[in-house]
Amino acid sequence: MTGPDGERLCLSRRAFLLSGGSAVTILALAGVSRAFGEGAALKVASYPRRKIGRVSQLKVDQPVSFQYPWKDFNSTNMLVKLGVPAGGGVGPDQDIVAFSTLCTHMGGPLAG
């Protein structure tokens, strides 16, 4: 095969192996996704709404403990009114946030 200027086109070994490997990977992944079909689709979990308290009763820097979504030790959380707007905050002043009392890394209780 020659290029527009009559020069012979050459594909290096590295380019050939990289192109071939990429093609095989893409074809394999396409086959896997078809094999699992809709079973591999992400599903969004839904949890029931639950009243924890009234916004008017929250005091700045005084956390309110609650258990959600289940009523067990591993579902312990705290609701905090920060007094200043926070990213993801809710309420009229966007200063109310919730935190889990369990370490997201190791799963142990956070204290102090």
Which descriptors apply to this entry?
single chain; 112 residues; alpha+beta; Rieske Iron-sulfur Protein; 2 domains; three-stranded antiparallel β-sheet; 1 helix; 21% helix; elongated
In short:
This protein is about 20% helix and about 15% strand. It is of the alpha+beta class.
What does this molecule look like?
The chain is α+β, with helices and mostly antiparallel strands and 112 residues long. It folds into two domains: 43 residues; 68 residues, Rieske [2Fe-2S] iron-sulphur domain (Rieske Iron-sulfur Protein, 3-layer Sandwich). The chain is 21% helix and 13% strand. The chain contains one helix and three strands; from the N terminus they run αβββ. A three-stranded antiparallel sheet has the order 1-2-3, with no helix packed on it. β1 and β2 form a beta hairpin.
State the CATH superfamily name of the largest domain: Rieske [2Fe-2S] iron-sulphur domain
In spatial order, strands of the major sheet run 1-2-3
Strand content: 5-15%
- The CATH architecture term of the largest domain is 3-layer Sandwich
How many domain modules?
2
User: How many individual β-strands?
Assistant: 3
Tally of helical runs: 1
Computed CA radius of gyration, to the nearest angstrom: 28 Å
Question: Any chance you could write out the topology, listing elements then pairs?
Answer:
Layout: H1 13-36, E1 64-67, E2 76-81, E3 96-100
